[in-house]
Design a protein that fits this description.
Number of domains: 3
Strand content: 25-35%
Shape: globular
Oligomer: single chain
Radius of gyration: 26 Å
CATH architecture of the largest domain: 3-Layer(aba) Sandwich
Distance between the termini: 99 Å
Length: 435
């Protein structure tokens, strides 16, 4: 075989090898949408990761959460090396690291946000791609204050109106799977509170009563006659605010793992955060020019009530810390966004809520993967949860005679997702009993 022919044959081999290599490289390019389900205990959240390649060869990515109605969280760092993809989302203190399969159709990896969770993604195609807002609803923007508008979702339906209110960090799209289960019997709305989603994010207006006023403004704008308010988690404070100040505006209140101290303040037990806020306000009034000219009554309140109560809170906290199981070292908790900090700083004391109430507690909570390698630590954590949550549920039940309290063992904090059938059954029975 002459030299020229041997060179020609080698070239023939090189060309398909280069084509094969190019196809493999293209298959492993992460450009496009990747979708998967993040499982954290009983809760499941569908996520989409969108990855783009810039003209200069750099990468950028954005994270969407379908079930939380995410508008998309940009990655602060996107690194692609071979088949490995690393993403960092500083806004939520989360990271993802995944490895693309040889055929480029899937990515196996880990989502870490405080603790690691397995998250496998599949490359979305035209036929399989999820819609980022798949729910059937109308989106309204309703003014509740000067230059403040709230996103209100209308899922339709007929019957008694109900309004769904979200927990901290969520917007009304968190109910996109749950709300349609109610429309055969009720007219269903959901509100995204100020500071989140498509709602306005003003610098102020995050006290519990102001957030309650936002709900009342939506009720008036929609011309709803005595709706039932259904609130998850921190929304318990909005329910209690409305129920305490304007019971005539609502037919009933439903607390979905939301009946904690921000919703009902148990004077016999107190609450460190709420008592601290109250103490800070009173101490501020002692400063020259900020309080009354005669501070004697304020001093008496501090000495007789506020300071002894705060000391009790501190002793209870120390006892909890001493008895709590030691978890494995983890990243520090993520810093809360400004709106969340303002909401936490705006908690108030509610003790008199004269409206029919249904309160559903996860008791004990599903602890998810925490302490899965340490049975003793897990048992101790569950015992502590039973003691603290159980005491609050009992106080709620005793202090509010109009309340029906339901306890769901080992339910997730998102009870309407983990225990949908139980929640629907209890809600229907409760609403059906209202005049």
């Amino acid at each position: 075989m002459n030299t020229n022919r041997r060179i020609a044959i080698k070239r023939l081999w090189i060309i398909p090898l280069m084509m094969l290599f190019g196809a493999a490289a293209q298959a492993q390019e992460p450009v496009g949408d990747w979708q998967g389900t993040l499982k954290t205990g009983a809760a499941e959240l569908r996520v989409i990761v969108h990855i783009e390649k810039e003209n200069d060869g750099s990468w950028k990515a954005r994270l969407f959460s379908i079930d939380q109605g995410s508008d998309g969280i940009p990655a602060t760092s996107t690194t692609v090396k071979g088949s490995t993809v690393k993403l960092m989302f500083e806004a939520i203190h989360g990271t993802y690291e995944g490895k693309i399969s040889a055929d480029g159709s899937s990515m196996s990896g880990t989502w870490t946000q405080g603790q690691p969770f397995a998250l496998d993604l599949k490359r979305a195609t035209k036929e399989t791609a999820w819609q980022r807002d798949p729910a059937s609803h109308k989106v309204l923007l309703i003014a509740v204050e000067n230059e403040v508008k709230l996103e209100v979702l209308d899922w339709g339906g007929s019957g008694r109106p109900i309004i769904l209110l979200t927990g901290l960090g969520n917007n009304a799209h968190i109910f996109d799977k749950f709300a349609p289960k109610l429309t055969s019997t009720y007219r269903v709305y959901g509100i995204t509170r100020r500071g989140y989603g498509a709602s306005s994010a003003p610098a102020s207006g995050y006290s519990a009563d102001r957030l309650g006023d936002d709900v009342l403004a939506v009720i008036d704008s929609l011309q709803l006659r005595r709706p039932v308010l259904v609130g998850h988690s921190i929304a318990g404070e909005e329910l209690s605010s409305v129920g305490s100040r304007h019971p005539e505006k609502v037919a009933g209140l439903i607390y979905l793992d939301a009946g904690y101290s921000y919703a009902y303040y148990d004077r016999s037990r107190g609450d460190l955060n709420i008592d601290l806020l109250d103490l800070q306000k009173k101490l501020d009034q002692l400063q020259p020019g900020k309080g009354s000219q005669d501070p004697r009554q304020l001093i008496a309140e501090l000495l007789e009530t506020s300071l002894p109560g705060f000391e009790r809170d501190l002793r209870a906290m120390r006892k909890d810390l001493e008895s709590a199981p030691r978890a494995s070292p983890a990243q520090p908790p993520p810093a809360m966004p400004a709106a969340a900090q303002a909401i936490m700083a705006g908690q108030q004391k509610y003790t008199d809520i004269r409206v029919p109430i249904l309160a559903i507690y996860a008791l004990p909570h599903d602890l998810g993967p925490q302490f899965k390698e340490d049975a003793a630590a897990r048992a101790a954590a569950e015992a502590l949860d039973i003691a603290k949550t159980g005491a609050q549920a009992k106080a709620f039940e005793t202090g509010l005679p109009s309340a029906r309290v339901v306890r769901l063992p080992r339910a997730n904090h998102y009870v309407f997702l983990s225990n949908e059938a139980d929640v629907l059954r209890e809600m229907n029975a409760f609403i059906g009993s209202l005049p």
